[in-house]
Amino acid sequence: MIKPEGVVEEESLSLWEAAIKSFMGPVLPFLKDEAVTEILINGPKKIYVEKKGKLQKVDAEFNDEDALQAAIHNIAQSVGRRVSEEKPQLDARLPDGSRIHAVFPPCARNGTTVSIRKFSKTKMDFAEYVKRGALSVEGAQFLDVCMFLGKNIIVSGGTGSGKTTLLGILSGRTPPGHRVIVIEDASELILDYEHTVRFETRMADEQGKGEVSMRDLLKSSLRLRPDHIIVGEVRGVEAIELINAMNTGHRGCLGTIHANSPVDSLVRLETLAMSGETQISETAIRSQIASAVQIVVQISRFPDGSRRVASIAEVRGMNADKTYNVVELFKIHDMKRLPDGKLSGTLCSTGEIPSFMAEIENNRIPFGREKFSGPNKLKIA
């Protein structure tokens, strides 16, 4: 008999909770501590946690390597995964939404190495994001305008910089009455939108069968009448499908990518798009990306542990030398370290007016040209 979805989820959660209580005792306090965002286990005797963007070593430890391996094996089993000599890695979404990744010896030279990135239960919106100092009021207003106008946006940043959080905020600003399809490797986005369809990839089984990739789901999504497609993280050949979607009338598409600057994000997107068996030339791919992506939001994790939007850039096609024409509209200026160790800076317009300014004015959106007049008084503190 097929059980209702809610019953299956509750059973999965109870199995996982039992496994956590029985085998993960040394890190249980940190799993319960809402201030801890990530737990890093470098073998049984070295455990670190992240609080407020800063890593710190804690006194907790496992008895030995066997105890740690047993813990991970039981967690894997509780969520329907298996770790073996042939596949000494675990990558899974836990029932509470957290993400776990583990690597076993001999690949992990320090002993079983684990990362548990905890699921945030706090719903974030632009107001809270601005309050936390991650973005200026005008920067938030401009991104809101971009979402209203259906601009295709890439959120770029390093590991742990807060890309998924910002993606969730942007997703929540989708105009009402649309159909949104979300595709992720592991469901992480906190998205409160009425007409949302969520897809999650599936790994191959022990016989190497049954895999459902990001690219597979992107292809399916195009046949399901999406108004907007959101890709949790672009990191493979699915990049070409996302680019095609952006170029075939699907406005307001969103995705994240690992890169250190707006230009780097486009170059990486290009590299990923060409990593498969595509027969499209480099010039053609570059041209498609330049016309598909309109806005790149660069988010960074700064030395004080804060995560902030460092730049909002517009992609204006190609330069004469076939490079990407990327123009920063907003950028952080005057970063200074305060006496308490925190960084203070100003996110302000650069003086560049977006090429779609007429579109903003024709839609009577109250975000005038004066907003792009150059450095202003808005501070990120």
Walkthrough of the structure:
Helices cover 29% and strands 25% of the residues. The protein has 381 residues and is of the alpha/beta class. It has 11 helices and 15 strands. It folds into 2 domains: 113 residues, Beta-Lactamase; 247 residues, P-loop containing nucleotide triphosphate hydrolases (Rossmann fold, 3-Layer(aba) Sandwich). The chain is globular. The longest helix is centred in the first third of the chain and has 19 residues. The strands form 2 sheets. A 9-stranded mixed β-sheet has the order 9-8-10-11-7-12-13-14-15, sandwiched between helices. The N terminus and C terminus are likely disordered.
> Mind telling me the CATH class of the largest domain?
Alpha Beta
The average pLDDT score comes to 87
Structure classification: alpha/beta
Instruction: Report the major sheet.
Output: 9 strands, mixed
- Helix content bin: 25-40%
The side-by-side strand order for the widest beta sheet comes to 9-8-10-11-7-12-13-14-15
Strand-and-helix sequence, N→C? HHEEEHEEEHHEHEEHEHEHHEEEEH
Unreliable stretches, pLDDT < 50, 5 or more residues? 1-9, 376-381
Q: Span from first to last CA?
A: 56 Å
CATH topology of the largest domain: Rossmann fold
Shape: globular
**What CATH architecture of the largest domain would you give?**
3-Layer(aba) Sandwich
Any idea how many domains?
2
Count helical runs: 11
Taking Cα atoms only, what radius of gyration do you get, to the nearest Å? 22 Å
Blueprint of the fold:
Layout: H1 5-23, H2 28-32, E1 36-42, E2 47-51, E3 54-58, H3 65-78, E4 89-93, E5 99-103, E6 113-117, H4 126-131, H5 137-148, E7 153-157, H6 163-171, E8 180-184, E9 196-200, H7 214-221, E10 228-231, H8 238-246, E11 254-258, H9 262-273, H10 282-292, E12 295-301, E13 307-318, E14 324-337, E15 343-349, H11 357-362
Helix pairs in contact: 1-3, 7-8, 8-9, 8-10, 9-10
